[in-house]
Design goal:
The structure holds two protein chains of two kinds. Chain A is mostly helical. In chain A, 78% of the residues lie in helices and 0% in strands. In chain A, helix 4 runs antiparallel to helix 6. By secondary structure, chain B is mainly alpha-helical. Chain B has four helices and no strands. The chains are: A mainly alpha, B mainly alpha.
Chain lengths: 143, 148
C-alpha cells in the first residue's frame, strides 16, 4: 500500500466533506440492533459455560452444589443476574425480529419500526422481571 | 490494497459446488433453534427465578425435585444441547468476522468446539445419571421424597 500523507488531494477533500465523523460508519437502528445482538450473545455464551459447570456440581455432592449456588444469592450477583436476563431477553426478542425480517417482506420493510417494538417489549418484560427478582434477592432467604 | 484473503465463509458467486452447503444449514439452525430456545429459556427462567422464593429456593433439593421428572430432564437436556450449539455457532461467526484464516483462527475454533463437546457430554451425563438421594448425604439437603 502506498504511503499517503494529509497533503494529498484525496485526503484533504475527504476530511472537509465528511466532518466530523470522517469515514466512521454511523448506522441507525439496524446497526445498533446488530451490535447489541452480538454483545449480548457473547455475554450469554460465557455465562452458559459457567452455568453448565456449576449445575454439574449436583453430581459431586449436595454440599458442593449448595455452596456454589449460595454465591448466586448474593445481592451483587443478583444485580448481575438482572443484567444477564436483560441481555437474554433482548437477544431473544431481537432474534425473533431477525427471523421476521428474513422471512416476511413486510418485516423487511419495517425493520426499523420492529427494532423499537423490541425495545418496548423488552422494557415491559423487564418491568415484570426485575422488581420480582430484586425483591427476592434483597429480601433474603425466607426459609 | 492488493492483498486478497481466502474467504472461508462466503463462496465466489457462480461457484459450482456439489458439496453440502453447511453455511446454509447453520443459518437455518440458528433460526429454528432460536425460536425453540425462546420458549425453553423463558420457561426455565420463570420456573427457577419467578415462582415461589425465586433464586433463594434453588438448591440441591430443588434440582433433585425437578429432575425426578423425565419432563424436566428432557427439557433441560434440550436446553443444554440447543443453547450450546447455538452459542458456539454464534461465536464461530464472530471468530470468522474478526480473524484471518490461519493458525489463530483454527485454534479459536478448536477451543470453541472442544468446550461445546465437553459441556454437552458433561451436562447430558449429569442430567441422566443424577442421583437425587445420594447415600450418606445429610437428610436436610436432599429432596423430601428421599425420606419416604
Amino acid at each position: 500500500m502506498p504511503v499517503t500523507t494529509a497533503d494529498t488531494p484525496t485526503a484533504s477533500v475527504a476530511s472537509k466533506k465528511q466532518k466530523p465523523g470522517g469515514t466512521l460508519y454511523r448506522g441507525n437502528e439496524g446497526m445498533w440492533s446488530w451490535v447489541l445482538h452480538r454483545i449480548t450473545g457473547v455475554a450469554i455464551f460465557f455465562f452458559l459455560l459457567v452455568h453448565v459447570l456449576d449445575t454439574a456440581l449436583v453430581r459431586v455432592s449436595p454440599e458442593a452444589y449448595n455452596a456454589v449456588i449460595a454465591t448466586y444469592k448474593n445481592p451483587i450477583m443478583g444485580l448481575g443476574e438482572t443484567a444477564l436476563v436483560g441481555a437474554l431477553v433482548f437477544h431473544a426478542l431481537n432474534g425473533l425480529r431477525i427471523i421476521l425480517v428474513d422471512f416476511w417482506s413486510w418485516a423487511t420493510r419495517h425493520q426499523k419500526l420492529l427494532f423499537w417494538v423490541v425495545i418496548v417489549v423488552w422494557v415491559v418484560l423487564m418491568l415484570g422481571f426485575a422488581p420480582r427478582h430484586l425483591m427476592n434477592v434483597f429480601a433474603g432467604a425466607h426459609a | 490494497m492488493s492483498t486478497t484473503y481466502r474467504m472461508s465463509a462466503i463462496e465466489a458467486p457462480g461457484t459450482k459446488r456439489r458439496r453440502t452447503n453447511w453455511e446454509k444449514y447453520g443459518w437455518m439452525f440458528m433460526r429454528f433453534s432460536g425460536v425453540l430456545l425462546v420458549a425453553l429459556v423463558f420457561t426455565h427462567l420463570f420456573s427457577n427465578l419467578l415462582v415461589g422464593d425465586g433464586i433463594h429456593a434453588v438448591d440441591f433439593g430443588f434440582v433433585g425435585g425437578k429432575w425426578a421428572s423425565p419432563f424436566w430432564q428432557w427439557w433441560d437436556a434440550a436446553l443444554l444441547w440447543l443453547a450450546l450449539i447455538h452459542g458456539t455457532n454464534g461465536m464461530r461467526t464472530i471468530v470468522n468476522d474478526y480473524t484471518k484464516p490461519g493458525a489463530l483462527q483454527k485454534a479459536l475454533k478448536g477451543a470453541l468446539l472442544a468446550a461445546a463437546v465437553a459441556l454437552i457430554v458433561l451436562g447430558t451425563l449429569v442430567i441422566f445419571t443424577f442421583d437425587p438421594c445420594p447415600v450418606g448425604a445429610p437428610a436436610d439437603l436432599v429432596p423430601s421424597f428421599c425420606h419416604a
